[in-house]
Request: fold
Amino acid sequence: MKLFYHPVSTTSRPIMLFAAEANIPLDYQVVDLFTGEQYQPEYSAINPSHQVPVLEDGDFRLTESSAILKYLAEKTRSPAYPLDLRKRARVNERMDWLNTGFYRDFSYGFLYPQIFPFMKRPDDKVQAGTVAWGKDKALGWLKVLDQNLLRPQSAYLCGDDISIADYLGSVMLLGGEVIDCKFGAYPNICRWLGNMKALKNWAKVNEAFYKYMVDPNKGKEFVQL
Ligand SMILES: N[C@@H](CCC(=O)N[C@@H](CS)C(=O)NCC(=O)O)C(=O)O
Reply:
């Protein structure tokens, strides 16, 4: 199987991490988002949405990080995607919560307009309003994540066992480190992130993210949570 990816991409790294931890062999092909390779005809034919990741398994192509995680986990019968109906439904629920609610407001609403010049709103007032709105919504999601989804007793998002929801969510949260957000006000999030950071392949998978996103933004001023 082949993964079209970018090492900094928030939607590629959960798959890289899961594949590395679960010993799923993948051929990795970089799509250079920094030079706009995703808009070149060759890649547009692979994914007309011009995004990574894309998984290729023989003549089958799959987009969407959440769907790819589920496909890989199901294909390898990974315990990170339990077969039990209700346990699996819980994993799906957490992944939808992350993808449709948390990621939208925390990343696209609050973080990205601050760290990506192409997502900064052209007008200062609009920019400030966008970030303030995103911050308000993100604070709400973080409280739910900390107090309702993780709670003091959970090591992972679905209880004591790691699931593919943890791979997806932890990489989303890590984005906060670009603006020096370490989630100190959220003890359960900190514990969970600590558990994820202790994974054998965490450092290697996130190396490029620190090099290209965290380090160059050190010392800059951002709106904080
Ligand atoms: N919903 C998609 C989103 C994928 C996505 O946002 N990919 C970004 C990188 S993190 C991308 O390829 N961006 C390139 C572009 O939009 O030009 C998924 O979860 O896979």
